[in-house]
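Hi there, hope your week has been kind to you so far. Thanks so much in advance, here it is.
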Amino acid sequence: MGLFKRNKGEAVVTKPDEGKKVQLKRQISLLHGVAIIVGIIIGSGIFVSPVGILQRVDSVGLSFVMWIACGIYNTLCAICYAELGTTFPQSGGEYIYIKRAFGETMGFVCLWINFLLICPVGIAASALIFSLYILKPFFPNCDGVPMTGLALLAAVIITLLILINIRNVKWAAKVQVIITASKLIALLIVIIIGFIYIGNGEVENFEEPFVGSDYSVGAIAISFYSGFWAYSGWSYLNFLVDEIVEPNKNLPRAIVISMSIVISTYLAANVAYLGVLTPAQMIKSEAVAVTFAESTMGVMAWLMPVLIALSVCGTMNGCALSMSRLFFVGAQNKQMPAFMGMIQYKNMTPSPSLLVILVMTLIYTSTTNIFFLIEMEGFGFACVLTLVFAGQVYLRYKEPDIDRPIKVPIILPIILCLISGFIVVLTLYQKPWESLVALCLVAAGTIYYLVLPKLPKSITDKIDTFTQATQKLLMVLPPDNPDEINWE
């Protein structure tokens, strides 16, 4: 291998094998796409605590209405994303759409929110939940699992998943298929057992299902908020558009198929839970699926914590797989460090971006205040959604003649923008401190973005040196661009 000649201010890159293009490959099929979305959405929520809605509306019947309403809302959001994903078929998801609509600065704000609040915090929280349910059976007589053990196991599983993603995209996608199949099997076990109980006459929880319902605006709003997050994850496939086989066909198909699976599974699982447990038992339980297993599975009850951990593992894998592409694209647009926009020339994966996610996630995993950060993550995601749907409406007027393989009625993104904006306001009202911290972090990132072009040469030279060292260490290259690269 030879080295590129380097002009002043340019990074050093290593020449790959002759005839081998340095670019992301289209390796994600329809099956992989469905597995990624289902694997991300169906995580710890349906196993651990699917009671947020039930707590707020105070009735079985209204809780099911809210589950359906939340599922439909998220499906409509996903359909709007399908229009954007096929209109702008580039990895990066909402970052690309916001940047296209509102310009570079707002695009960076979206990128920064995902980089600082959404991706690493979500993976870290999932890793800690994974550790909790793997280690819990080993500490039956203790007050809790030691925090050191939780953090160490979380670090191990995160590192393993990131290494799989670095090594091969197909491996990561296949891992997601296996995990998704496993969690659906676990839910199928719950559903079968629950429906057997119902078939044997355990139906008292469904008698007069709407008695005691709380129809107040506050109760409906908060229950909708809980359901909204239970369905989150459908947007991640849009970060992988560059790697989807026939994206115009497979992206919308994957969204519709996966959302149908998730809604049906959530409803059936909640019916099954109520066939065995009373609403009061569900609300008191820290992990509904574990309580369900202890009541029905006897000596096999140990299996449920393992399946919960496996489910959470799928969420982490899907998030790392998707979000690394967002930061990769951000670096390509010179809004993230240059080395994050490079590809490992043998494996054709964005390994620098994945390694940055690993480092940040490990930092968040070591904190004891992870749930505070998760609340900030929720606020950040609601802000991003509001910007995306506002941008989608604006693009209809800004670029009316652009080819849109899928075109939804304009009223749909308008309504979704208003609902997402309401969620932002609701979060500001409910969690003012968390929201303020999140806003301050976003503001700090924006200041950094505005100051970056004005950095003195002494600092930019050090950044260049670091980029070159990273390239040599990781054997990474920028994607092919013949106009900018001169072979030796």
About this structure: Residues 1-16, 481-488 have pLDDT under 50 and may be disordered. Residues 104-135 form the longest helix (32 residues). The radius of gyration is 23 Å. The chain is about 70% helix and 0% strand.
